[in-house]
């Protein structure tokens, strides 16, 4: 079982650092799945039985890495699954975000000293035009083959409505305030392109309305608007995806059941699944 990769494009280093930072805001543990053509960050909802995916982030390795060598176990499937702390990985990549204009290359490899770990080597220049090497090691746990099925790609999501989200920076400011009022948030979407965020307590009801949003799909057999109530903090955490500068963010909703938030950016997609909660 071997893995080694090299990255030298400034934009790709910045994007990877932002993606990992975003994932670290959504979970304390995730699984890095390495395959021939893609690499993934996967998070399971441990509170659900059976287990289900809460985060699925897929990236084309050829877009990010100049070199990419993988020997999986078993070799005929050629994949590796590693459980790790995204916060530790984000901290290791933070120098790319601070000195990204100066970073020359970054190498990642799977090593095994006393325990398995991802070793990162980031080459940075100095004022004397000589390179210096910044090294980090992130402990990982190798997921055995018998558990790979737990991290399979989520089944297709069949929503009642799909609506494009407003600017995430604006949404983040709104949800940061709403979560101080109530623990739960009602998300309403209509076929007219309206999105409403509402929180209610015994003392007050607060709503924010967005209009003229693009509706990509709607179930004409059901009367709208469609509404799902979710954990406001989980919904708010998703807004950190703003830092990856997505080209599009879409909210797919099953009325009263669940929400699938999908981020699209170049050769990367990130899906965040929220289960509805009862009043």
UniProtKB/TrEMBL annotation:
Name of this protein: Checkpoint protein
Gene3D superfamilies: 3.70.10.10
Family assignment from sequence similarity: Belongs to the HUS1 family.
Pfam family membership, one: Hus1
Keyword list, A-Z: Nucleus
GO BP annotation list: double-strand break repair via homologous recombination; meiotic DNA integrity checkpoint signaling; mitotic DNA replication checkpoint signaling; mitotic intra-S DNA damage checkpoint signaling; nucleotide-excision repair; telomere maintenance
Chief location of this protein within or outside the cell: nucleus
Cell compartment(s), UniProt: Nucleus
Keyword Transcription regulation applies: no
InterPro entries membership: HUS1 (IPR016580), HUS1/Mec3 (IPR007150)
GO cellular component, one term: checkpoint clamp complex
């Amino acid at each position: 079982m071997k893995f080694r990769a090299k990255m030298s494009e400034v934009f790709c280093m910045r994007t990877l650092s932002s993606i990992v930072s975003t994932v670290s805001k959504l979970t304390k543990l995730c699984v890095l799945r390495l395959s021939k053509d893609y690499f993934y960050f996967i998070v399971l909802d441990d509170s659900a039985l059976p287990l289900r995916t809460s985060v699925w982030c897929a990236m084309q390795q050829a877009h990010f890495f100049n070199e990419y060598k993988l020997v999986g176990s078993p070799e005929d499937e050629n994949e590796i699954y590693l459980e790790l702390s995204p916060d530790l990985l984000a901290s290791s990549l933070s120098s790319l975000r601070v000195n990204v204009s100066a970073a020359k290359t970054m190498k990642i490899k799977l090593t095994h000293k006393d325990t398995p770990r991802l070793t990162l080597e980031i080459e940075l220049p100095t004022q004397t035009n000589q390179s210096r090497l910044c090294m980090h090691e992130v402990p990982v746990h190798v997921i055995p083959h018998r558990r790979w099925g737990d991290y399979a790609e989520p089944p297709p999501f069949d929503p009642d409505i799909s609506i494009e989200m407003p600017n995430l920076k604006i949404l983040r400011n709104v949800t940061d305030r709403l979560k101080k009022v109530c623990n739960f948030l009602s998300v309403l979407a209509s076929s007219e392109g309206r999105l409403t965020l509402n929180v209610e307590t015994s003392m007050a009801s607060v709503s924010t309305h967005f209009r003229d949003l693009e509706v990509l799909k709607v179930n004409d057999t059901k009367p709208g608007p469609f509404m799902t109530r979710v954990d406001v903090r989980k919904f708010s955490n998703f807004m950190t995806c703003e830092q990856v500068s997505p080209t599009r963010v879409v909210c797919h909703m099953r009325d009263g059941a669940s929400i699938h938030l999908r981020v699209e950016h170049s050769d990367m997609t990130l899906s965040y699944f929220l289960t509805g909660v009862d009043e």
